[in-house]
Sequence to fold (921 residues):
Amino acid sequence: MAIQLQGRQRECEALDRLVVSLRAGQSAALVLRGEAGIGKTALLDYVQTHPAGSRVVRAAGVESELELAYGGLHQLCAQLRPHLSTPTYDALSTAFGLTPGDPPDRFLVGVSMLNLLTEVAEDEPLICLIDDAQWLDRVSAQSLAFVARRLLAERVALIFAVRDPSAADELSGLPELVVTGLDFSDARALLDMALTGVVDERVRDRFVAETRGNPLALMELPRTLSAGQLAGGFGLPDALDARALTSRIEEGFRTRIQSLPPEPRLLMLAAAAEPIGDAALLWRAAERLGIGPDAAAPAESADLIDIGARVRFRHPLIRSVVYRDASQADRRSVHRALAEATDPAVDPDRRAWHRAHAAVGLDEAVAAELESAAERARARGGLAAAAAFLERAAELTPDPVRRAGRALAAAGTKFRAGEPDAAYDLLATAEIGPLDDLQSAHLARLRAQIVFARRRSSDAGPLLLDAANRLEVLGDPLARETYLEALGAAIFGGRLGDVVKAAEAARVARPAPAPAGPMDLLLDGVATRFTEGYAAAVQPLRMALQALRADATRGAARLEHWLWLACPVAPEPVAPELWDDETWHDLATRAVDFGRKLGALGVLPVALSYRAGVHVHAGEFAAAAALISESDALAAATGRAPLRYSRLMLAAWRGEEHEAMKTIEAGVKDATERGEGRALALAECVTAVLYNGLSRYDAALDAARRACEQEDLGFFGWSLAELIEAAARSNARTTAAEALQQLEHHAGAAGTDWGLGILARSRALLTEGPAADALYREAIERLGRTRVAVHLARAHLVYGEWLRREQRRQDARFHLRVAYDSLGDMGAKAFTERARQELVATGATARRRQVDTRDILTAQEAQIAQLAAGGLTNHEIGSQLFLSHHTVEWHLRKVFSKLAVTSRKQLSPTLIDAASPVSAV
Fold:
């Protein structure tokens, strides 16, 4: 039956528009925010009774279920269960424990959920209502937030209700509708419905004012007052803030609950402790508690609960009051009954959770059962649930040694679940011990990892180094991993850390057992780089990259862990450190393919940013912009900070000074706050690129000098090249010669065409006559054999500039024209203008390039168009980009319109590139 809400015309109209748009094919996500009792649940009820031909499914977060992984998703999917039988939804099925399999990435579960909702909506529009979203388990909240941010044209709506204030950060940034109190006249009208006797007008007005138009307060608080109190105004609430008002409402519910006989109260407690709303399970538990079927009638008559096919409290506050006010003995009794009523074969984890709450004192049997539940949760990818089980297991463990071990395991699992603060707190429990030496070393390592995760500063390096030393003394194979983590943290800290100290410690560490794995080779190579110098490190680093490529080819199971999570130095920036553009391209491509194939969305933003860097140096700025945009979107969807390295490079190479400096300054501010010295060095390097492009060589010289103060891994060679050009153009010959000597040491030892091409170009800048001519030609020849097209274009530019000064105008025009056209096509605005001015100086004509933005594609449209031109179907494109095929189709319609084509066959890379967003990310 449709309901009408007093005073909620604005909110209902907004929800009606959402439903109408949904039927027209437009998806939507909306977060209803407001204090307790303000009417959020009533608005969800309104949508449920006004579906306009849409299917409605509903779920609710429950405070006691916060730690049970996928509980919220399971509530929704239980109403769509027939669809889960298809292989497309294996990630969901594994997460729910319905089918065996490797633990799914939690965001792959989100992708699977997006596909499921899209499929269901094929038949009719689908509305998902999620009440009390602040109490969803974390994995469900993350998955649903991910889905909400990817919706566009699927005919799916997600509407969340969130109590304020709350810490439901996962939903931040989604469209919101703030629900406030009713205005005076509507509040008076609602109060009149709740009053049954004569009440003085002034008393009514005061009641409305003191409740601030909160509908639940207006309906419930009069029930707590006698007719005499209402008539005379005695006992009315004082002026209350939101928290105090909630307390008064709860007090009203408490009074009604306490007036019930014992059996209905105990039945309501069992319902409050069983959040799924399974009426059959509730009645099985009630039978074990000695509660008869008639016990529900008084609670239902009091308008507190409804027990039909499912169990539903009239308002979430009632559930909270019932559970909070119950005695410990009664809570344990209902949890024990619920545990006995739960089928251990169907839902062993929930049974273990109830048994844990039913336990009196220490109980090893229950602790062991929780430990087993943790293993099952971990196997389903539910790290948060596994950590909660282990934490409770530790609390119930009687043996101090075993308790400390379980607390340490819980801390490690909390950390891997993305909760470093909770993990840090658990370490205090583990430290009480007793711990053996090995456990103490593992605790030290975990504490250091938490410090690094909280603030990626140089503080973590010494802590990791100490942990590595302790693990090595004990012969633990994790010692070498920890040395690599320590070295990575020091490199991350850059000039703010102590890289050499970490490298020296790693060098004297116990050698790896034969045959050495990729990370052992990487540790040896990077440590050698900072202890014995660049030349000595080239061969071991090259062997490490070859081993990494081999592992990537085989799809090694540990690739994700090692390549992107455990070690900030592999393989970026090792490949560019060796001037190895081919390996850089190969590893970056495999990383993106790996992330897309497995749906590893925790890894994919890093891989996309890494691959974007390859595109920047290839002069493919549009492709880089598309990947950076996708990386930022996925980082936001997965609750991670955006990655700035490739964004800084792209901004500098584009050469739009105002936008570039704004991006660089933001990067510097962020890096300074986090103690990320390496990013500070990169900011100086790209500032030098920017000002060299703008022909402001003094500013480029200052920035390049700062960039070269320390040999930051990955781009020190780039900084030297910028320093040489800026110094040569500023007549700082001594500085240029010193930098050239360092570049000769690096690029010469690497021996690649990229390195030797940059070296030849740099030597040419400091050489005269035929020798300079030969060096410029060598640079062009060598760089022409690489993927780094932007450096090839710059080689043509500086050669053309030299030829013009040598009065060889015809030759100069050729190379300047190549540079002008190449850099212009890439979108390198500053370098293009530099080439144009040189061309004009030779007597040639060259107009300033103008970008027509009328029909320019967005970054995502360009990416989808390229994939469609490559022959991929909408479903295949959606799988790669974590979008539904409906959203892909919607974007392609816009692409067709902008490019004036009517079919996929007309799409070509050239056409797409011409309309790609080279100046916007």
Observations:
- The two ends are 48 Å apart (CA to CA).
- The chain has a mean pLDDT of 84.
- The chain has 47 helices and seven strands.
- The beta strands are 28-34, 55-60, 126-131, 156-163, 176-178, 305-307, 311-313.
